[in-house]
Amino acid sequence: MTTTTARAAAETAPTAPTTSAARRAAHAIALCAVPSGLWRLVMAAGLPVGYSDEVLREVYGIPGWGIAYVVGLAVLQECAALLPLLLVSERVRLPRPRAVAATAWALSALVTLFCLSQLVLAFFVEPDPNMSAAGHLVVNILYAPLLATGPLLAVVARAYGRRIRA
């Protein structure tokens, strides 16, 4: 058996079942993105979300091109949050599972570092001058669940790595 044939056989071999903790973590990642996505959709609807109507119109282009941008960003964020569900799905066979596991580990580290940097910015940098103080508090609360995505993704990546090695 050649090395490419052995590698292909190893990559298509059946894997161990996914742990329930990894499944819960993948679902939690998808749920972490919901509050900030809903805030963006409310913003796209033109409702006050801490910004005045003038700021929404002048700075963010709502109504106008800004609606497509804000809705597109919310959809993109939720699609990215749903990707870890592929790692815990036993129905979907991902090509090159070892590369996927390594990428998932790297992404979990990057997401964690990015979220921590955003936390530092939220506490030590001046808030958006166009937003009201109450709006700033609400935005911080709605974006806070995103801080959990990095560690949750690490749990899913670890479970996926163990599953493909089993």
State the gist of this model.
By secondary structure, this protein is mainly alpha-helical. It has nine helices and no strands. It has helices spanning about 5-10, 20-30, 35-45, 55-60, 65-80, 85-90, 95-125, 135-145, 150-165.
Any key phrases for this structure?
about 170 residues, mainly alpha, about 70% helix, about 0% strand
- In terms of per-residue confidence, which ranges show pLDDT below 50 for 5 or more consecutive residues? none
Q: What is the H/E string?
A: HHHHHHHHH
- Total helical elements: 9
Strand content: under 5%
- How many beta-strand elements? 0
* 3D shape: elongated
Pairing-aware structural class of the strands and helices? mainly alpha
State the helical fraction. Answer: over 70%
Arithmetic mean pLDDT: 80
Distance between the termini: 21 Å
What is the C-alpha radius of gyration, as a whole number of Å?
A: 20 Å
Give the biggest beta sheet. Answer: none
Task: Give your account of this protein's structure.
The structure is a single chain. This protein has helices spanning 3-12, 20-32, 34-44, 53-58, 65-82, 84-88, 97-124, 133-143, 149-165. It has 166 residues and is mainly alpha-helical. Helix 3 (34-44) packs antiparallel against helix 5 and helix 7 runs antiparallel to helix 9. The longest helix is centred in the middle third of the chain and has 28 residues, at 97-124. The two termini are 21 Å apart.
